[in-house]
Amino acid sequence: MRRAGEVVRFVKGVIRDTIEPGVTTRDLDRVAEREIRKLGAVPSFKGLYGFPATICASLNEEIVHGIPSKRIVRRGDLVSIDVGAKVDGFHADSAFTVAVGVVSRRKQALIDDTAESLRRGIASAKAGGRVGDVSAAVQEYAEARGYGVVRQYVGHGIGRALHEDPPVPNHGEPGEGPLLREGMTIAIEPMLNLGACETKVLGDDWTVVTADGKLSAHFEDTIAITHNGAEVLT
Ligand code: MG
Ligand code: MG
Questions:
Q1: Cα(111)–Cα(212) distance, rounded to whole angstroms?
Q2: pTM exceeds 0.70 for this model
Q3: Alpha-carbon torsion 38, 41, 45, 50, what sign?
Q4: CA of 228 to the centre of ligand 1 (A)
Q5: Which CATH entry fits the domain spanning 2-232: 1.10.1470.10, 3.90.230.10, 3.40.50.150, 3.40.50.2300?
Q6: 145-179, pLDDT tens digit by residue?
C-alpha cells in the first residue's frame, strides 16, 4: 500500500506540473499512464467498471468521473484530477483540484477549503474511532462555510480492490458507523460544491456534475489507520 501510495503521490506531482492553459485532459491522461507504468505500477481505474482511462479529469461544475478527452484546459478553469495505481496487488487512490492561472477568491477558497476539509477528516481518523468521526469532521467544516457537501459519492475502504468496505461518507454523526481499527486502509474524499449538494450524471454515463451547474472541488487521500493516528499514503 505504501509503495502504491508513493507512485500515486509522484504521479500527482507530474500531472500538476503538466496542467497549463492549452493542454487537453487527454494529454494529462497520457502523462499519468506513462509515469505509472514507468514505475512498474498499473493504472487502477483503466477498465474498472468499463472506465476508459487512467485518470478522471473533471472541470469546473464537473464533480468526479470526467473522461479525458480533446477538451482544452483554459485559464480560470478548476481542474480536478483523480488517479489510482496498483503495485503488487494493492491500490492507492488520490485526487486534487487546482485552478489554472489566477482565479477569483471564491474559487480559490473552494479549493483551499475542500483540501482543509480532507485534512480535518484525516485528523479525525483514529484506531478505536468510527467512520462517522471522519464524516462529521468533513461535513462540519464544509457546511460552516456554506458549501454543498456531495452525498451521492463517498470515500471507501481500499486495498486489494480499489473500492472496498466500509463506505466513508462526507456527512455523518461522530461515534456512528463502522469501527476504525489499526491496519485498516481507507480513502477519504470530500467533494464540495459552491451551490447545492445535488448531482446528476451526463449522457456519457460517467461524468458527474452539480445539478445547479455551480463549481465543485475534490480532494482525496488514501490513509492507513495506525496506533497513533492516520498515516497518509498518497
Ligand atoms: Mg479517487
Ligand atoms: Mg476513491
A1: 18
A2: yes
A3: positive
A4: 25
A5: 3.90.230.10
A6: 999 999 999 999 999 999 999 999 999 999 999 99
